[in-house]
Amino acid sequence: MAKAKQLKVTLNKSRYGRLKAHRASIAGLGLRKIRQTVTVLDTPENRGMINQVHYLVSVEEV
Question: Quick check: pTM over 0.85?
Answer without folding.
Answer: yes
